[in-house]
Design goal:
Number of helices: 16
CATH topology of the largest domain: Leucine-rich Repeat Variant
Number of strands: 0
Oligomer: single chain
Strand content: under 5%
Structural class: mainly alpha
Amino acid sequence: MKARGVQEALAKYASDTDAVFLQRFFKTGPGQYGEGDQFIGVRTPMTRLVCRDFKDLALSEIEKLMDSPIHEHRLAAAIIMTEQAKSRRTTKLEKKALFDLYLRRTDRLNNWDIIDVSCRDIVGGYLSDEPRDILYKLARSKNMWERRIAIVSTWQFIREYQLADTLKLAELLMKDEQDLIHKAVGWMLREAGKKDDQALKAFLDLHATVMPRTMLRYSIEKLPLETRSQYMKITLS
């Protein structure tokens, strides 16, 4: 079972038409967040289908996939790692190895779909019963993708009704300049609100006046319409 096998299996689903579409969708043009990324035109459901046959791929082969310039190869690496991290057969030591590889190669986790499909289970899952200082280091990174990993990884804690890190990191990322971070923070605040709407409202009461509008809109999506309207009427300070 080799990285080359994954690449060959993905190639069977490649489409030139989809490659063009995906390059536009993931903003690969000059100056855009995915600048220079390359696609062969494999849709995510097909990538997941291929990954099922390579769920036991060794970490050394996964890293070879991560090194590929092809987006779908790197996405497949992230999906395979995620499935291994979620497996009941995976030991704590193996989960740490996945966690370590993931954070060592954040240079290859360079688009939101790759991060969003994987960091909750690989990073958040491992840190469920571990110190979480690394998330605050990532949140202060100059690398936008590392900052996104920091906040989206807390989705695992939210699922366990642990909201403190999400709220602290949201506050830390409040003034981030990137729209992709505004969306990610708002998304995680929305997820936190599903578990405890009072905690979300308390956060919004403190910060709504300084939150970017995108972040605020994402965070209140599941609140009652009247409540959403009240928050959207708040004037930025």
